Amino acid sequence: MSNLWVFSLVISVFFALFSNNIAETGAAALEGAPAAINFLFLTGGLICLWGGALEIMRRSGLTRALARLLRPALAALFPRAARDGEALGAMTMNVSANILGLGNAATPMGIAAARRMARLSGGGSADAELCLLVVINTASVQLLPTTAAALRAANGAAQPFDILPAVWLSSAGSVAAGILAAKLLERVWPR
Amino acid sequence: MAALSELISLLPAALLAGTAAWGRLRGVDVMAAFAKGAQDALRMLLGIFPALLALLTAVAMLRASGALDALTGLLSPALTALGIPAETAPLILLRPLSGSGAMAVAGDIIAECGADSLAGRTAAVMLGSTETTFYVVAVYFGAAGVKRSRYAIPAALCADAAGFLLSALTARWLFGQG
Known about the structure:
The structure holds 2 protein chains of 2 kinds.
Chain A: H1 2-19, H2 22-28, H3 32-59, H4 62-77, H5 79-82, H6 85-99, H7 103-121, H8 128-139, H9 146-154, H10 164-188
Helix pairs in contact in A: 1-2, 3-9, 4-6, 6-7, 7-8, 8-10
Chain B: H1 4-9, H2 11-25, H3 30-65, H4 67-81, H5 89-94, H6 99-113, H7 118-129, H8 133-144, H9 152-175
Helix pairs in contact in B: 3-6, 6-7, 7-9
């Protein structure tokens, strides 16, 4: 990330000199900081609002209810880990929290599931089910894309949440593509 | 009976009211829970604020110098052929690498193109339907003590690519040219 940042700054200065956007670029160097504060005020307030609402949902038992609902599907996707109560429990809570957008709760449960699965399979190489768990986590199914909606609201969207169906379809499709790719690569990739 | 679009616009209010009422029925101390969740979110925001500031400065400089346009122009034939708005190019490149970077770039695209434009909507859908792939892979395999991640990264990038394509497709399909 550091390299990317340095590269962006240096290339901007060179580009400014060559494309004659000198004054604009100089002014732009001082625009990012107010923009960041602006983000914190407008979007940050909304992110806090949804963070509060999500915590109420979590304490109301929504994560557990969803975990119960997902258990059979996950047990079918992870037949080996499903034989271990601890791994399956952590995994269902991880996926449920992710779906509800509870990143803070999802990561510790996901890590617990990953450690347990690595211990069950042994060795320093990822087995098929651990790869699948990580791929599902990188693809993220999200029911309430609160950050994206907050960014839209802060920039004057008429209906910040009208992207919901598009986000559901896209994230479900990307998880499906991830599972499919993992299942295909599992056969050809050397151990 | 109100029109459907009007009902959808009530969603944030209804979601908050429903959450609060259901939590109360389940015996949750909703004010305390809300305060805890909002505080966690604030702590997260303050945590990423310095990175956000650094990245937003870089994005503003890239945009003003013309470098961002050059990059967009470079990728635009490929993206246009796939039906993806070219303005989302920086988001596609940054999304798997950095969560705060993606947030900064998506905010920049939404502000520049307009929240209800096709590019702005596509950027929001992309941000909502994908994750910081490399970070997730590093955290999970690191915590599990696994050294060889095998095909996890290529498979995860397939998922990201599908997510980007579908974001553009669904945004165009559900909202037209915008």
